[in-house]
Amino acid sequence: xxxxxxLTGFLAMIPLFSSGQSFAYKTLLQTVYDKNFxxxxxxxxxxxxxxxxxxxxxxxxxxxxxxxxxxKLIEYSTFSLEKISTIPKDKPIVVYCSIGxxxxxxxxxxxxxxxxxxxxxYGGIFHWVNExxxxxxxxxxxxxxxxxxxxxxxxLTKGDKVYN
Length: 164
Fold this sequence. Notes:
Residues 48-137 form the Rhodanese domain. This is Rhodanese domain-containing protein. InterPro entries: GlpE_sulfurtransferase, Rhodanese-like_dom, Rhodanese-like_dom_sf. This protein is of the alpha/beta class. The protein has one domain (22-162): Rhodanese-like domain (Oxidized Rhodanese, domain 1, 3-Layer(aba) Sandwich). Helices cover 37% and strands 17% of the residues. It contains seven helices and nine strands, in the order ααβαβαββαβαβββαβ. The chain has helices at residues 2-17, 23-32, 42-47, 60-65, 101-112, 124-130, 150-153, and strands at 39-40, 53-56, 72-73, 93-96, 118-121, 135-137, 140-142, 144-146, 160-162. The strands form three sheets. A five-stranded parallel β-sheet has the order 1-5-4-2-3. A two-stranded antiparallel sheet has the order 6-7. A two-stranded parallel ribbon has the order 8-9. The chain is globular, with a radius of gyration of 17 Å.
């Protein structure tokens, strides 16, 4: 009987580990994200990329290693609404950073400023890369991805990590 319970428990956990994203990473993201802030999954963004204004909230050194094609650099440390003043307030916007914490903060500022269609990229660029989606450096595809720091870089399971 005890073996049957253990086996049932183990089998129930398989979906948690088989989605390409670890249970630990999903748990981390649940602690970072506000429940009511809109998220977009990497594959949904990829399928509809042309519809969105894509804002990379990471710092310049991170962006220069690689970014999602078409993204505009809007650094977290120097963010101002003037940097996005040409974007219509009803334009669909996706913000992203390494995992989504910094981008969610900027996304909230956008909503407070009257932007009505703002989404945070679920799992950030780390999850994007882990899903096998492409990143670019100066319009050339690359495998390099800035790992933010060694502590956060553990969440990158694909790509060549760079720290600078």
